[in-house]
Amino acid sequence: MICMSILDTSVKIIIICVAAAGLYSGSGMAHKKFTRDVFIYFTTLSVVFCFAYFLVFIVLDMFGIGGGSLMGFIHGAVILCVTVTMAVYHLVLIPNLRSRIENFKIFSLPNLCMHYAVPLLTIAHWVIFSEKGQFTYYYPFLWTVFFLVYFFAVIIRAKAGACIAGTESKYPYYFIDIDAIGFKKTARNVAALAAVIVALGYVLVFVDSLLS
Description:
By secondary structure, the chain is mainly alpha-helical. The protein is about 75% helix and about 0% strand. It is globular.
């Protein structure tokens, strides 16, 4: 048990370090070119969310404070967020970026850390170490609220702000760019993505129940 506890904490620390490395490199701080627009991207926010969750969990554990149902709910949201980040990047964004950007670096340090390493480590940690049976049937709908809040925040920012640094768009992703593809197509894309997220949430709940 002590060995498993040490391994559990070690993996949490590794996730925190990998997330920090990805954020440090991806934000431009490594090259002294920090831009706050990097926090418009869901990838960045999901990794920050993951980083904060594991950091808080370790601090609470140091003081002997249990996770509880709230931390269990947040843990599920973290897993879902980083999983969606990985899936959308690999299945949707890479084909688009490859067609538009010559010699696009799929596995650059920030991409490797934030789109692959953090999600895979987070999923592996949950499967191996986390207490199971904490997720309930209505959680997927609540988790989807995180994504919808993000989408509406993006719209508000786009209506009030300028183009994102380094781009010619006010939107971080082409499939939610109302200016480029119109409101109806954007609404269909968001509805389809929300449905996929709910479905992924139920897969998470089912696996959680199965492993418990």
